[in-house]
Amino acid sequence: MKAIGLILAGGSSSRMAELTRKRATAALPIAGGYRSIDFALSNMANSHISKVGVFTQYNSKSLSRHLNSSKWWDFGRKQGGLFVFTPTLTHDNNQWYRGTADAIAQNIDFLKSSHEPYVIIASGDCVYKMDMNKLLEYHIEKGADITIVTKDLGKVSDPTRFGVVSVDSQGVVTEFEEKPIVTDKTLVSTGVYVIRRRQLIEMIERAGAEGGFDLVKDIFIRYKGIKKIYAYQMDSYWSNITKIDSYFHTNIDFLNRKTREYFFSEYPTIASKIEDLPPAKYNAGSCVKNSLVSSGCIINGEVSNSVLFKEVYVGNNCTIRNSIILNDVYIGDNTYIENCIIESHGTIRANSNYVGTPEEIKIIREKNDRYVL
To answer: Mean pLDDT of residues grouped by 10 in the chain (373 residues)?
Structure first.
């Protein structure tokens, strides 16, 4: 493909509370065995983008560990590859990334040493599937300087999470506002952009010289009306997971058979790092209904309308309803959990009771004392 990929995966979200206390948003577990960044990586790999740079910063340990081999997404080639960039102190620079544009600026040599004419930029915190070849074809056909991938949400309940746009009948962006407090617009930016590589380099360097560090606010919005900015509207599934309720409901969406088949059965599929774990085990007396249960789980109780990630142990007489249990959680006997997210590596003591509501999902983070001598 005539483009390189950039994935912005360095941010955190205060809206996610305990869930991003020890991991980046792009490293959040999704659908039982995936990470959020897997969707952007797979979309690029499936679109034959062979060279991808990932920019990490906040809580990058788990994300870097997940990306320690490029083979899972088929980037291990002589031409191209997967490159992970973290902030580096040098003689000329002693700053952390001060924004998305600054992250690219501090690694501008990656763009300058590349030969592909276009750059596709994506966020690491969205769940979707996209053929980026069609996106690039649209960009070239329109003669656009910048193309923004958009999604009509029908209703935007919390516009402070999104950039909102207006377009004319030709698809030209007429208004672009980043994270407004209120809006009546329903067309939002998905955080995926196409731009010429040389033009991006020029814009990044100019913004940096003028103290601009944000890719959207200091570059894309600034050039609205000067550059030809088009919108490419997505009509398939898309979800941003930077809020607790959206993260919860995105995972619950995978209990819908059509959603699962769309992502994991219909070509092209989503790839992730694979761990060698035994299949889930359902002991006598267990009962599982409309749930995703991942490898390494042992089930003794009742599980319904829930997503269980890897290596979860559910004790005797337990009831888990409408909840998400993250990796490596031990749930003691006679425990009742409903409308909750249980943080990974936790121990839920026997006879515990945790109940949230559909409107207010409760996050449970218990200290892991299973291995204390």
So the answer is: 90 77 90 94 94 90 86 77 84 78 92 94 94 96 96 85 90 90 89 96 92 90 90 95 92 96 93 92 96 97 97 97 96 96 93 94 78 47
Contact criterion met (CB below 8 Å) for 180 and 189: no
Q: C-alpha 60: how far from its chain's center? A: 14
18: left (phi over 0), alpha (psi -120 to 50) or beta: alpha
Tell me what pLDDT residue 373 has.
42
Rounded CA gap, 298 and 332, in Å? Answer: 12
The answer to whether the CB of 17 falls within 8 A of the CB of 244 is: yes
pTM of whole model > 0.85? yes
CA–CA distance from 339 to each of 305, 308, 320, 335 (Å)? 10, 13, 9, 14
Q: Can you read off the two tokens belonging to residue 256?
A: 């819908």
Tokens 């983008």, residue located: 49
8 A C-beta contact, residue 19 and residue 343: yes
Cβ neighbours, 10 Å, residue 17: 13
